[in-house]
Amino acid sequence: MAQAVRERPLPAGDSPPVLVRVENVVKHFPVGIGLTVKAVDGVSFEIRHGETLGLVGESGCGKSTLGRLVMQLIPVTSGEVFLDDVQLTKIHGEKLRQQRRQMQIIFQDPFASLDPRMTVGDIIGEPLVNFRMMRGRKLNQRVQELLRVVGLNPNFNNRYPHEFSGGQRQRIGIARALALNPKLIVCDEAVSALDVSIQAQIVNLLEDLQREFNLTYLFIAHDLSVVRHISDRVMVMYLGKIVEIADSIETYSNPKHPYTKALLSAIPLPDPKLQRGRRLVELSGEIPSPIHPPPGCRFHTRCPIARVPTPCAEVEPPLEEKLRGHLAACHFSQDV
């Protein structure tokens, strides 16, 4: 994977309009009598038209749950999600179904996300059939056009998913996501199951499609080198909370949260000499249980700069601006 920081400019204008707005979203899963998993716990952010917002964090921090909440694939416990000023959390049934034309998702597993009993043509054309947009010859032409757009032979439309490699299957999933000309695509670990060389091809394809169709991405991943390559802004999540949001270049060059710094130090360098001379930020212990998250800052039990018992163990730090456009939730961000 290329290591260069993404330098693609955002849409013209200093402040592109907001496409997605998430306000204080909470998602709790009951797991027993009096027990609740706090998967997402009071998250707020915005995604602008035409940008890629990268969402990173360790496994189990709530990334995929947050992506599904944005898509309204699962209902929120509380909070609000807006798409182009339409409050998705207040609509249901057919009204919500019609809004799904504007937002699609690319799933992590290219093997499990495609029905093995359907042909590629049926898989890609299913959204168009469901919304009664096309049928017959026009539908077949549209499917072949989408296959061509994602770099596959248009004559593959009569084949089945088991006849394709993992990278080809993910391209089929991307074609399905593009079928309805959506504004927003949630990429839920879209390249993590692929080989490194195939990852690069898929990331480059996503960037090309974004330029061609003016797409907006919420790109969820745990590989920070991939996120660095594709994202305009990066949002870091820990134990159901957002701990840092900043421009991609600013995040990687000047992190303001110790958790972000630890994640960045874990990115391997291709030069063995530079890698041997690096100082890794070691985190002790495991991620606390989301059933009983620690009081105060949720990261303080593993943080190398935490000061306990006060304020880190008692006062939850707000997600606030430390530099222009750079938000972090840390009492001692100046020490990072």
Key descriptive features of the protein:
336 residues, 4-stranded antiparallel β-sheet
Please characterize this protein's 3D structure:
With 336 residues, the chain is α/β, with parallel strands linked by helices. Helices cover 29% and strands 23% of the residues. It contains 10 helices and 12 strands. A hairpin with a 2-residue loop joins strand 1 and strand 2. Helix 3 packs across helix 4, helix 3 runs parallel beside helix 5 and helix 4 crosses helix 5. The protein is globular, with a radius of gyration of 21 Å. The two termini are 27 Å apart. The N terminus is likely disordered.
Give the SSE layout.
Elements: E1 18-32, E2 35-48, E3 52-56, H1 63-71, E4 78-83, E5 86-87, H2 93-99, E6 103-106, H3 120-130, H4 136-149, H5 166-178, E7 184-188, H6 196-213, E8 216-220, H7 224-230, E9 233-238, E10 241-247, H8 248-253, H9 258-265, H10 272-276, E11 320-323, E12 326-328
Parallel strand pairs: 3-8, 3-9, 6-7, 7-8
Antiparallel strand pairs: 1-2, 1-4, 4-5, 9-10, 10-12, 11-12
Helix pairs in contact: 3-4, 3-5, 4-5
Task: Briefly characterize the structure.
This protein has 336 residues and is an alpha/beta fold. Helices cover 29% and strands 23% of the residues.
